[in-house]
Every structure is written in C-alpha cells, then in structure tokens.
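so the lab meeting is tmrw and i was supposed to have these ready like two days ago... anyway. pasting both below. for each one the top line is the aa sequence and the line under it is the structure tokens. i havent really looked at them closely yet so no promises
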Amino acid sequence: MMDHLDDLRFAHVLVDTADAASMDHFKALDLDIETRPDMARWSDTQAAVEKLVRGQLQRARPRDAVLGAGQGLDGTGPRCWVVDAIDGLENYARGVPVWATQISLLEVSGGDYRPVVGVVSAPALGRRWWAVQGHGAFTGRSLSSASRLCVSRVSKLPDASFAYSTLTGWEEHGRLNGLLQLSRAVWRTRAYGDFWPYMMVAEGVVDVCADPALSPGDMAAGAVIVTEAGGSFTGLDGHPSPLGGSAAASNGLLHGELLEYLNVR
C-alpha cells in the first residue's frame, strides 16, 4: 500500500505538469464558432502534453511501461502507466471547460491488468478526483485538502439518473435500442460525455453511466475511482477490466439491470 500511495503522490505531480501545459493553450487561439474547429492543431497540443508526462515517467519510473493515445505502448512488465493527456479534446478545442487529464497505474493481477491508482484532473473546472486501490476515493484541490467520495444508494431504476455519450456512438455499435429502452426506464438522462459522468457516479450525483466504445486511457482512472467510491465498473460484457473497449459504471445496486438493458440489440 505504501508503494501505491507513493505512486499516487507522483501521479498528482504528473497531472500538475499536464494541467499547466494544457491550460497554457486553452482558449489561446481564436475559435471560429461557425464551423467545427481544426482538430489537428489541438491534437498537437494533446501530443505535447503526453510527451511531457512521458518524460517525467521515464526519469522517475524507468522500469514501468507507459501507454498513451499519442505514442502507444512503450515497455513491458507488471506495471503500466496509462496517460490520457486531454480527455474531451473536442470540448477543449471549442473552449468548453469539460475536459481532463487522466493518469492511472495498472498492475497485473490474476493474469490481467487492473488499475490500482487513478487521478482525473479537470483544471478548467477547478476539480480533481483520485483513488488508490484499497484506500478509498477522494476529490479536492490537493491530497491535504480532500473529501471522500461515495456512490449513491438509489436502488430502483425509476429513481435513477443515467448519463451516456452521444447517440451516434450507440447507434454505430448496434446498441441504440438498449440505450433507448434504458432511457425510458430511468428517472432522467443526461449526455455529459467523456470523464465527467464517471466522476459523478463516484460522487453519488449520477447513479449509472455507460459508453459503447472507449480506449484504456478513457477508462482506467475512472475504474479505480468508481470502485473505491463503492460502485461497480465493468465493460458492457460485465468483465471488470478497463481494457475491454466499453464501459458501464454504477452505484453497484443497479449494475445488473444496467447491463441487461444495454446488451439489448
């Protein structure tokens, strides 16, 4: 546990670096709000942030593998850092403050990688969330100024708040029917997208959320934060690994019903 707490402190240092770099470019260029932004230049910013984080990891954790969206996988071994430099890049490009850096540490357990440390930092919102396996999940400005996270106790779908990603993604993956059926069964739905609904599940202000297609960087930090807050985090197939390509998160009480609906074709 002490090693993981040290990794958590280091992960906070990494997101401090990422936050400073990404905020330097946030809203720095004129945006043409009449058209979609040129994502290429913002992807360059994302890659630059990832490069900074990778440099720190190489110096401080040279034996650990690193997986990032921009540069792929470097290294092998039982420990792997996963870097999502700017989750919500489209929001970032349009000046919407809902984007974050996500950094997590995965370790091999039972023949599969499982997240043991996760930090999600949304500097434009002034919010940060983190967790260490077996140590709980927290939110706050810093390690010394934090409050513990706990999922909701809503136990019936008609009372539940459900967050999801864009409808087109569900349609493209053949799961729109299940999504629509679930949306009719719950109290309310909101399409927040990206990292935020998973953090809201951990905070207990949203009860269930899901995405049909995600990368490991989109899921790994959220997985340990949600589970340490008392919730459940799996793929749509029910497997607990954050490497399965899809995600379903809940307060735990509603997880079985969530999966049943979302697997309707």
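ok protien two:
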Amino acid sequence: MSSFSMSALTKALPSVCRQSQPRIASLNITRPFSISSSHQAARRNDRGSDLERQMLSGGPASSSDKPSGLSAITEMMQGTSSGSPARGPESDTMSKQIEAQMLRNPYADRAPPHHLHVYCHKHNTILTLTRPNGNPLMSMGCGQIGFRKAGRSGFDPAYQLSAHVMSQIQDKGLLMEIERLEIVFRGFGKGRDAFVKVLLGNEGRNLRGLVTRVTDSTRVKFGGTRSRHERRLG
C-alpha cells in the first residue's frame, strides 16, 4: 500500500488507524521512597566478605573486633588466646604458663566446687559434704543409721549410708547451693564400690549431674614407721 493511500485512509478513518498503530510500552521510572534497602544490601555484602576473610585467615575479620571477655584458660581451651591465633615463641610461653596455672588451680575461671569426701575404712564408711572453703555441711557414718561395732564394716551398711546421705542432701535443699561437686575417695574398703553403685543408680540421679571431678586422696606411705607384721592363722 502506497504512502498516499495510507495518509488518505488515516484522514478518513482516524479511530481505526489509531487502534492499529503499535503501542510502545511506557517506561515506568520510579524513584525509591527510601534507600534503606540498598544500605541493608550493602551491609549484608560487607558481612559476607568479613566472614569469608575470617574463614580464609583463621582469625578475626577486622581489628575492630572486641575481646570476648573470657579468661585466658577458657580461651586456650577454645583454641584462641586473646582473640588471635597462637603464633611464635611468645604464644608458646603463654600457653605453658596457662597450663601450669591450670595444674595449680583447675577452677581458676569457674566457681569452686563443693566436696564430698568418701572415707572407706575396712571397719567403717564415713561420708562428709563440705563447702568450697572446707567448712562441713554434713558428716555421717554407718553407726548413725543403726549399725553397731562389726556390723558397720561391709557392703550393705555402706550402700544404705550412701543412699541415706544423698536423700538428706536433697531433703535439706543443698542441691540449690551446689553448682559443682568434687568426689574425693580415701581408702579401698568395701564402701568405695557401694558408693559408686549408689551414685550411678536411681538414688544418685539428682547428684550425678553435678559431679565435675573425681579424685583419690588415699594415703601413701614413703618410709615412715615399721608396719605391723602380717597376721598368720594356723
């Protein structure tokens, strides 16, 4: 169709030709009301780059990181020292000092524990609960629960004593005071096995979770006075 006929048709029927013309999509150019979304995206990208830098370097992402506030012993146990990886001879010396401090005082960065002393003699079993400073809270032997003389030595009296002491600790409300508990054994009598069996049984379910350390303070003689001769029968 020629341009002359097209112009004539447009003049004759303007509405039909206007509908047949191609429409150009309008460009909606809008301006954001705020730039908070762009700031959040930039902050998110910065955080991702910081994490990537921290993973590659093995240390903190930037020097502006604040110290963790933990003690040196806790940081060493977590694998860090003052928020930076251990490097060089100075860090080795520091780690050795921290290890020596842990050997001298293993509870330097935590609250000191209560102590439950288990004295297992061949004739009796005595349980003593003390505060962290050494002041006794409770002390009880097999004679205080009805056993007399030779009946105090044996597995069953020690078992009943251990169960009674653990129930008394719960009834007197001492579990609220005890945060950590250290068990100190002394001697190799029958009460040693009886106490362990009660602690691992149903009677010690409330006290078992508080135990953080088990030590043995059995006396060992180096030299000293002459021992009694061995008893011989027959």
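from a quick look at the 2nd one: Residues 98 and 216 are 24 Å apart (CA to CA). The two ends are 141 Å apart (CA to CA). will dig more after coffe
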